[in-house]
Design goal:
The chain is mainly alpha-helical. It contains 6 helices and 2 strands. It is globular, with a radius of gyration of 18 Å.
């Protein structure tokens, strides 16, 4: 994709993150999901709260509180995402089984360790969960 094509996705991404608004108990925190997700997908060299908040024009403490203290309905968010995948990618009725297609979901949430000052510890990879592939 070109830089222009990626930039054109901005409004669609905003609508996508807004579709999860009901998964948050407080209205004023709903917009922080988009800020955080954009930061994770950005080219920032560090994907921690501080650089993401600063790049997104949000107070660092506000984004920290969003991630640590604010209530998210994780089950509702998961269920809504699953319904969306089925709605948008389920084959039409009567489609032969061999023609169902495949959906690849990559959940790469690992982060490379950057510190080199801890005695006896070498650089290491810190995966939180393994990447998964799911077929439809």
């Amino acid at each position: 994709m070109t830089a222009e094509q990626i930039a054109a996705l901005g409004p669609a991404f905003t609508l996508y993150t807004q579709s999860f608004a009901r998964c948050f108990s407080r209205r004023e925190t709903r917009g922080h999901l988009a800020t955080y997700a954009r930061g994770l997908m950005s080219d920032l060299p560090r994907k921690s709260v501080e650089p993401i908040a600063l790049a997104g024009g949000t107070a660092v403490r506000t984004l920290q509180e969003f991630l640590t203290h604010h209530v998210w309905d994780h089950a509702r968010m998961r269920d809504q995402l699953q319904r969306r995948v089925v709605r948008d990618h389920m084959p039409a009725p009567g489609t032969p089984r061999g023609k169902l297609g495949v959906i690849g979901l990559i959940d790469e949430t690992g982060t490379p360790k950057k510190g080199d000052k801890t005695p006896g510890v070498q650089r290491q990879w810190s995966p939180r969960r393994p990447a998964r592939w799911t077929t439809a």
